[in-house]
Input
Amino acid sequence: MVSTATSRLWGWGVDGIDEADNRTFTPPATQRQVRFGGRERKVFRGTWDGRICEERNNEPVWVDAPGEHTLTGYLAVGDAEKHGLSAATEVLVVTE
Output
């Protein structure tokens, strides 16, 4: 059993930006638990459209983010990377 620090079970990020959104989001502090059987894997799916959300004039603006990026998925525990509860891959975003 793994306990999360907040109500979020898992998350993903682009270059360290959670959900590719530069605006601050803090999930409720309620802990949750995820149960794993021996050697069990859980699959979470997400899609990134190649854009990053920035705040301009107090409004969210999604902008294209061409270039090389690191996409990371993680189980939402304190230090997922340290505990081997994250994975990352490199992608190249090309816009025309």
The chain has a mean pLDDT of 88. The radius of gyration is 15 Å. The beta strands are 2-4, 10-14, 17-18, 32-34, 51-56, 59-64, 67-75, 86-93. The CA atoms of residues 49 and 72 lie 15 Å apart.
